Amino acid sequence: MISGKFAITLHILTLLTKFPDEYLSSEFIAGSMNLHPVLVRKEIANLKKNNIVESKEGKNGGTKLLKSASNISLDTIFKMTFDTVTLGFSKNTPNPNCPVGKKINENLEDLYENINEKISLQLSGITLENFSNQF
């Protein structure tokens, strides 16, 4: 199912792009989003794991981009936050004797695969720098 992780991650990275020479605190970032800093730190941990940002602790600590925003596609960011997009399946197992029930999940899987291909194609053509320049 779709969550706000992509939007949160993109917000974090856009802020970091706007302040490329500064280490931004999770409190500052969280204030921009009206989120709790713990939720921001969770997404920053994922960005660190994927070598997109670096962090340092202490009074002047925080997080900054490790890579150039021009070298990070929105597709890369999307794939760090989701394996795939799915709009869900029925909680109950459909009736295999029904002409719809026996094929519905297979057809939904094909639909979701197609959606993911289109999302990836669309996002791969947009860099973090392109996106950030809108602000």
UniProtKB/TrEMBL annotation:
It comes from the Bacteria. InterPro entries: Tscrpt_reg_Rrf2, WH-like_DNA-bd_sf, WH_DNA-bd_sf. Coiled coil: none annotated. This is Rrf2 family transcriptional regulator. It comes from Flavobacterium algoritolerans.
